[in-house]
Amino acid sequence: MASRRSVLGGALGVSSLVVLPGTAAASRGGGGFADPFTLGVASGDPLPDSVVLWTRLAPDPLDPGSMPSRAVPVGWQLAHDESFRRVAAAGTAWARPELGHSVHVEPRGLDPDRWYFFRFRAGGHLSPVGRTRTAPAPWAARPLRMAATSCQSYTDGYYTAYRHLAEEDVDLVAFLGDWIYEDPDSWFTRGVVRPHGDFEPMTLEEYRHRHATYRLDPDLQLASARFPFLPTWDDHEVVNNWAGMLEPPGRPNPTPDFAARRAAAFQAYYEHLPLRRAQIPAGPDALMYRGLRWGRTADLFLLDTRQYRDDQACGDFNKPVCDEWDDPDRSMLGPAQERWLLNKLATSTATWKAIPQQVPMGQWELDNDPAVRRRSMDTWDGYPAARQRILEFIAERDIDNVAVLSGDVHWHMAHDLTLNMEDPDAAPVAADFVCTSITSGRDGGDSPSGTLASNPHLRYSLNRRGYLRCDIDRETWLTSYRVVPYVTTPGAPLETRARLALEAGRPGLQQA
Ligand SMILES: [Fe+2]
């Protein structure tokens, strides 16, 4: 435990964390339980006057009985300095067994555009120190430095990319989906670099176990303690390629009651992520789409492309297109979320309209022959009418500076989004920065995609692991494609393999 704390402390530039008298990490404190802060701390969803502070009490997170089954008071402090001399806000929250003893504090009345430090105390134990910040005031023209990450299959490798990300000077990390993976270890025919358990989670207790395994990772803890996150989910937080209230055909363990499984998965997700009260699930439903404003520089519209979508067309997965594929009635967002997004896009007064979400919006024709249409039925490529409605709305209303951020496919990519992505001369109306995985897909390689000729609007692609860094001001959006050359062994260096930019008021990606 001491080494984990010193790792966190070192990254924060804190040589010795303040330990209150009587606190002994290895002992059972006054609460009658051992150090409960094994999963670290995190923060999320910054507003100009508030940010969510998160931890979960779990002395042995893989043992559901390691906390007493009663509500436990948790003191919290938010300070201007990392030695907690200038405390800005403090209070007591309750960690309740119904929510896995997770703690989600939403302090109010904070200063806009400020960095803060925070920590928790429970049962005589003190947590590691986290660093977080508030958003700028709505009228401020502050730049936004944002990272994006996705797809962190524990079994596929080490979170070296998070270790490097923790060194970046970013304000916010948007997480685009696949926080956990559900397949049992023994199903990974390529083998496992790090086992996450040879079971497929179905129940709340099983999802908690899976989430706890991921949260125990020291590199994930490092990045989580360093910046606020803006998380959304994709499919693997529940089960591969789920859609609405359906799982895909042919699962080896068909789910007996999908609504109950979705409810368990949603609750465990909420318990392990720094989300607001508005995101607490009600059974199998949870409001995950939401907005976040970064002054006059950017509005962020975070989507949920899983919960309200119609079933995948043509039997799902990568398929030649079939009749139902372009049915205009098929929806990706569901009617309410689609209306919400279009209304937000039309009324935003920020320079950039960013849409962090799960599955790529840029078309990726999977066949080398441009005449063949073989598409992923799980991404926006499988919902072409829904995609077209959004892009035509942007074009017709002349909404400028729209940048989509996507995950899911475990490739770094950049697409110009046009009204006809089969036409090499079509004018861009928006851009899609696709973020590769943290680990999923293992090391990858440098050979280029064979489908470049079939995808004339595709500006960049690379099958490597890493994350995106976006430097956004009122003139320019610059995305840097960060890469680690390997994840199956620890210690990879960080490389920047590409930089692509958008200029405000001028659609179309440019090399930078
Ligand atoms: Fe993934």
Automatic annotation (TrEMBL):
SUPFAM superfamilies: Metallo-dependent phosphatases. Pfam families: PhoD, PhoD_N. Residues 146-479 form the PhoD-like phosphatase metallophosphatase domain. Residues 39-134 form the Phospholipase D N-terminal domain. It comes from Streptomyces litchfieldiae. This is Alkaline phosphatase D family protein.
